[in-house]
Amino acid sequence: MSKRRRPATVAKAPMATTETPATLGVLLAGGLASRMGGGDKALRAIGGRSLLARVVQRFAPQCAGLVLNANGESARFAVFGLPVVADDVPGFAGPLAGVLASLDWAASERPDAAWVASVAADTPFLPRDLVGRLHAERVASGAALACAASGGRRHPTIGLWPVSLRDDLRHALVVEDVRKIDGWTARYACAVAEWLTAPVDPFLNVNTPQDAAEAERLAALHPEL
User: Which domains can be identified in the chain, with CATH numbers?
Assistant: First the structure.
C-alpha cells in the first residue's frame, strides 16, 4: 500500500515589523507644585494609588528602564526602586532641566539607549502605546524629536528626545537661558502624535486641587483606566 504524500508547504514571507529603539523613560517630578500648595504632588493619591504609582505602571512596560527626575531628598521615593536624578542646572529651571539631567544619565549609565521619553509624573491616564507611537510618528515624518498632543493641544513635556542633543540642550539652558520647552524644540523638526480625548484625555495632568478632583471622578467612572 503506497504512503499518502503530504501536501507541499509554501514558505511564508516574514511579516514586516518596526521595532521601537531602546528608550529610557523619565518621570518628571522636579517642579515646585506651587498650584497644589507645594509638596510632592506625584505622591498624591488618586483612586487609592499615588499618581506616580499609576504613571509607573503604565509607562514602565514601554521603556528599557525608568528614572525619576526629582530634587531634594531622594529617600522619599525609595519605595519605587527607581534611580532618582536631580537637576544640575540651578534655580529650578523647569522641565527642560529634568530632560537634560535624564539625557546625561542615559549617556553615562545606559549607553544602549539612544533615546529618552519624558512624561509628567502627574498624568494618571498616560497612554500605554505612548513610546511606540512617538517613535512611529518621528520616523514617518523624518523628525529629530516628537511630542504628544490631544484635543488639538500639544503637550511639550510628553516627548521623545535623542541623547545626542544633550550638549545642545545644555548650551540652551545654561548659556542662552532658554526655559520653555517649545522655545528649544522649535529649533528642530518635531513630529506630533495625536491622541483622542475620549473616554478621558490621556494627558490630563493634576496641577490644581480641581484637577485632582476631576482625576478622582474619572478614575471612579473608568476603573479600566
Answer: 23-221 (3.90.550.10)
